[in-house]
Design goal:
The protein has helices spanning 20-27, 43-53, 65-69, 71-77, 92-107, 137-148, 170-178, 196-208, 258-279; strands at 14-18, 31-36, 61-64, 82-85, 112-113, 155-163, 213-217, 227-228, 234-235, 241-242, 249-250, 253-254. The protein is of the alpha/beta class and 285 residues long. Mean pLDDT is 84; it is low at 1-5.
Length: 285
């Protein structure tokens, strides 16, 4: 029995391109952090489908509680590696617990998805001011792997861009964007995704149009913002191989240093933002 018998095929609607083969190869050499742009609540579903197309299992990621309350979205969330995050909680301890959880999963070899924009882009513009909190877990997990002498210590960061011609919640996002600065909502819990039938109808109609969703994987980076070669080696700006372990050494041993991690993560964020601008597919609306 088909769950959605009238739904058009995703194969024709979703175009997966870029450094996808490299992503698949690097996953065998270490642990991957996928960092996509964020324009719609459909992003995690589309990204999960792109990974499926590449023959890869679901990656772990945090998703807002409101998405699990939607029976359609909730069904996919529970099967795509998502765990619940209450974005209304501002307590520093809660945020630190989430960060520590992400770090531990990376240390144990679980691939993750982080949306470094933090929330959906209200204007549809490609994010440039990224939130670096979770990104910093890459450096920390890599250092911990070196200290523990893990066999697969490498961590790879793969930027990705998602491009839609239309998104279901466009009306709500635009309305929020046009409100006075300082009065817009950071967390939207009552947009069009709150109605399962609207979600189904939108997905069906979108894929019936001559419209494509582009998933573009950018060239991978190491936790310090260096390019990564075909065999997982870190490369300096001139293409020379460098040892990433030396970035976290103190007195010839890997050590945890929060200030140093913050500087590395800032550089990584700059490289990710540049990849977003460079590799985004511009479409008409």
């Amino acid at each position: 029995m088909q769950r959605f018998p009238e739904m058009p095929s995703l194969d024709d609607a979703v175009i997966v391109q870029g450094a996808s083969e490299k992503l698949r190869r690097l996953r065998e050499l270490g642990t991957v952090i996928l960092v996509p742009t964020h324009v719609s609540n459909l992003d995690s579903l589309v990204m999960g489908y792109a990974l499926y197309r590449l023959g890869l299992p679901p990656f772990i990621y945090g998703a807002g509680l409101n998405l699990f309350s939607n029976p359609v979205m909730g069904f996919f969330m529970h099967n795509l590696g998502a765990y619940t995050v209450d974005r209304r909680k501002k307590d520093p301890l809660y945020k630190e617990a989430l960060k520590e959880y992400a770090t531990l999963t990376l240390e144990h070899g679980y691939d993750n998805i982080f949306f470094p924009g933090g929330t959906r882009s209200r204007s549809g513009a490609t994010e440039q001011k990224l939130k670096l909190g979770l990104l910093g877990t890459g450096v920390r997990a890599y250092t911990q792997n070196l200290i523990r002498q893990s066999k697969n210590e490498k961590i790879f960061i793969v930027p990705a861009t998602l491009s839609f011609q239309l998104v279901l919640e466009a009306e709500t996002l635009i309305d929020d964007f046009l409100k006075e600065q300082g009065k817009s909502r950071y967390i939207i819990t009552d947009d069009e995704f709150a109605k399962p039938k609207r979600l189904y109808d939108f997905a069906k109609q979108l894929m019936s149009l001559d419209s494509k969703i582009y998933v573009t994987f950018s060239n991978p980076l190491d936790p310090f913002g260096n390019d990564v070669g075909d065999n997982g080696e870190s490369l300096d700006p001139k293409g020379r191989v460098v040892d990433p372990a030396r970035f976290v050494f103190t007195d010839e041993a890997p050590t945890i240093n929060a200030k140093r991690e913050a500087l590395y993560t800032q550089r990584l964020g700059e490289r990710i933002a540049a990849a977003f601008s460079r590799d985004s597919v511009i479409q008409s609306t």
